[in-house]
Amino acid sequence: MTSMPHYRSLQAELETLTTEAFRPELAEIDRLPTLEIARLMNGEDATVPAAVAARLPQIAAAIDAIADRMARGGRLVYAGAGTAGRLGVLDASECPPTFNTDPSEVVGLIAGGPSAMVTSIEGAEDSKELAAGDLAELGLTADDTVVGVSASGRTPYAIGAVEYARARGALTVGLSCNADSALAAAADHGIEIVAGPELLTGSTRLKAGTAQKLVLNMLSTITMIRLGKTYGNLMVDVRASNEKLRARSRRIVALATGAADEEIERALAATDGEVKNAILTILGGVDGPTAARLLVESDGHLRAALAAAPR
């Protein structure tokens, strides 16, 4: 059982956090009309992008470091508890269909394991050892990156993940929503998005969660752009795993090449449905096997493969 002095110490610590601050001007919010509460909440949400904008240099530096390691075969691992953990799992799970990554390349770890995605696992976030154990199963290398995510910046699971990873030579990023956080201090790259106190005191699934989602979107998306997973703003590595994505694949080839439907169908047939390869056969004037070879030689970067095509 946790002692009373410990609780007092934790309470004093929480009272210093911007994300936990009480806003007396909102103390009567429950008495307002629904539309007015919605306006207040929308106004709060509108401040988040500006808070992210203030940290763009730190975000960009982290992305460049992540991309360098992933280009050498490293993995991107998110680690967090509660909402922060769920956002990391969400971002990781969307990379395979969007960028045709292997599920092992971008990984989301949540304190308490997969069941914590839908059920609160009490106490899991308080364990640095749990984070170390989860990462040990992955067999981290110096080419991997671990991003600890925690709104408060003090969650032991996120800090433990970063400390374990850094001790093993992996790149570390600490994403929090409070200034001067322990998480940022523990990481190679600290990213602190200070969006201010929440509409509901301490409910960090609100502005803090939105801020974390925006930054995680940037980390994965821009890293994939740097790795050649896009051609311009087209998702040329999209995995056509359903009818919608198959239709999108044809549209992407059309947008990239301006080719007629019949030529697009021939190109996709010749490249086993691989969008990037199909674009290269059309724009580069090469056959399917040549397109595949050129892309391997250019590490998957379509622009470099096009430059190397004989046409």
Architecture blueprint of SSEs:
Layout: H1 4-14, H2 34-45, H3 48-53, H4 56-71, E1 76-80, H5 82-93, H6 95-99, E2 106-110, H7 128-136, E3 145-150, H8 156-167, E4 171-176, H9 182-186, E5 189-192, H10 207-226, H11 243-257, H12 261-270, H13 275-284, H14 288-297, H15 302-308
Parallel strand pairs: 1-2, 1-3, 3-4, 4-5
Helix pairs in contact: 4-10, 5-10, 7-8, 11-13, 12-13, 13-14, 13-15, 14-15
Keywords:
alpha/beta, five-stranded parallel beta sheet, 5 strands, 311 residues
Q: Any overview of this molecule?
A:
With 311 residues, this protein is α/β, with parallel strands linked by helices. Helices cover 51% and strands 8% of the residues. The chain has helices at residues 4-14, 34-45, 48-53, 56-71, 82-93, 95-99, 128-136, 156-167, 182-186, 207-226, 243-257, 261-270, 275-284, 288-297, 302-308, and strands spanning 76-80, 106-110, 145-150, 171-176, 189-192. A five-stranded parallel beta sheet has the order 2-1-3-4-5, sandwiched between helices. Strand 4, helix 9 and strand 5 (189-192) form a beta-alpha-beta unit. Helix 5 packs parallel to helix 10 (207-226), helix 7 (128-136) crosses helix 8 and helix 12 crosses helix 13 (275-284).
Q: Please trace the helix and strand order, writing H or E for each element.
A: HHHHEHHEHEHEHEHHHHHH
Alpha carbon gyration radius:
22 Å
> What is the oligomeric state here?
single chain
β-strand number: 5
- Order of strands in the sheet with most strands: 2-1-3-4-5
| Distance between the amino and carboxyl termini | 73 Å
